[in-house]
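Lab notebook page, bench 4
Experiment: in silico fold of construct C2
Operator: M.H.
Input chain length: 192 residues
Purpose: comparison with the prior construct
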Amino acid sequence: LVVEVGDLDRAFDKMESQSRGAIRKAADEGASVEIRPYATAEDAAWISQMRSRVYTSKGYEVREGADLQYCRCMTRLEGAYLFTARNRNAIPVAYALVHLWSSFAYYSSGGVVRDQESPTGVGNLLHWEVMRFLHQQGVRWYDMSHSGLLSENADRRKVAEFKRSLGAEEYPYLKGLIFRDGIPGRSLVRGL
């Protein structure tokens, strides 16, 4: 699912009104988003812990540190940025790991901790801030990852519906390349 962020006003207008309202509500509840480059072992450990919190809050059983190697591998990808949403008490409640490459950006990991600490709409606010940042960086396309619309897994369908509510549309995708009007982008993985 892809959002065109080259025209930010148009991207905002394409969002469902419920998503635009959720962005405002999260900001009104004191949520904020910080952005920083991602490239250290400490970042990998922090993301692994956040992923565990996200999955545990959704009722999944998580083996501590199980995906730390995956998070370390993410540091090998070019142009990685970590977006962290915090509640009014500065507690991290959501994150997104996004990789930039030329006029493309790819969402590789993220989630919202589902508990009483998370403001309503914090996921919407997080992705809106990602889109704003990408626009400022001259990125045109934000690939929010697989659609999951046809998945038998109800959680994946909910995630896909959330992404679509933010204005994401389906586009053909093949081996790390994104196609728009038949023109391929470049792979995000170094050396490919």
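Observations: Confidence is low (pLDDT under 50) at residues 174-192. DSSP finds six helices and nine strands in the chain.
Next step: discuss at group meeting.
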